[in-house]
Write a structure and sequence with these properties.
CATH architecture: 3-Layer(aba) Sandwich
CATH topology: Rossmann fold
Shape: globular
Number of helices: 6
Structural class: alpha/beta
Strand content: 25-35%
Helix content: 25-40%
Oligomer: single chain
Largest sheet: 9 strands, mixed
Number of strands: 11
Number of domains: 1
CATH superfamily: Class I glutamine amidotransferase (GATase) domain
Length: 217
């Protein structure tokens, strides 16, 4: 899997997640894993001709809207088809604000599997439980604690839950995987800031997810 080309898309209309800083953390650990990485805050990267050269799209964008033709470019690149404009299906990795991106796009949130609703005040240490230790994305990862925003989301299954957190009487999904057309999707609600995206378990999970997202079996 060394040599995969990754497009990391970020940016925040509200200023809560500084991609100029957090993007550098993603760049560091993804290139450290042997991937080629480009960072951008420009939604025009979803044009089919631009997406064609990438293997995986990582989304850390928040709130921004995307024009319909670029939305179709992104979704079509994950769906994939032999005759498609973007070539083979891309893997999709949604992180934290990736569940808060493009609020006007129902199709995008159906692809991700959820839409952000709210989160309690950050500061409490959360116990994050591994629900499927045998899944390739969970390789080398055990249940762990982290201080992070607990996204409470409207979810759109089916998807396969990999991490969960118990909160107010319910087991909340924290990370999952799902198919989308010919492509593969991973999403985690973790990753609010620098401390969180540097967490050892988080880093392992994202690197594993990138590799899993382009597997064909």
């Amino acid at each position: 899997m060394v040599g995969l080309k990754i497009l990391v898309v970020g940016g925040d209309d509200e200023g809560y997640h500084d991609f100029t800083v957090i993007g550098k953390v993603f760049y560091s650990f993804l290139t450290g894993a042997g991937f080629h990485v480009d960072l951008t805050g420009d939604c025009s990267c979803f044009h089919p001709e631009r997406l064609k050269e990438y293997d995986v799209v990582v989304c850390y964008m928040s709130r921004k809207e995307v024009p319909e033709h670029l939305e179709k470019g992104l979704l079509g690149s994950i769906i994939g088809s032999p005759w498609g404009a973007t070539g083979k299906p891309k893997g999709f990795i949604g992180i934290h604000t990736g569940g808060y991106s493009f609020p006007g796009s129902a199709a995008y949130h159906n692809m991700v599997g959820a839409r952000f609703l709210a989160h309690p005040e950050m500061g409490e240490e959360l116990l994050i439980k591994v629900t499927d230790p045998d899944h390739p994305v969970m390789k080398g990862i055990s249940s762990f604690t982290i201080v992070d925003e607990l996204y409470l989301m409207e979810v759109y299954p089916p998807f396969h839950v990999l991490l969960s957190c118990h909160y107010r009487g319910f087991e909340r999904p924290i990370a999952w995987v799902k198919p989308y057309g010919l492509g593969r999707v991973f999403y985690t609600s973790l990753g609010h800031g620098q401390e969180q995206v540097r967490n050892e378990s988080f880093v392992k999970m994202i690197v594993n997810a990138v590799k899993w997202s382009v597997e064909t079996e």
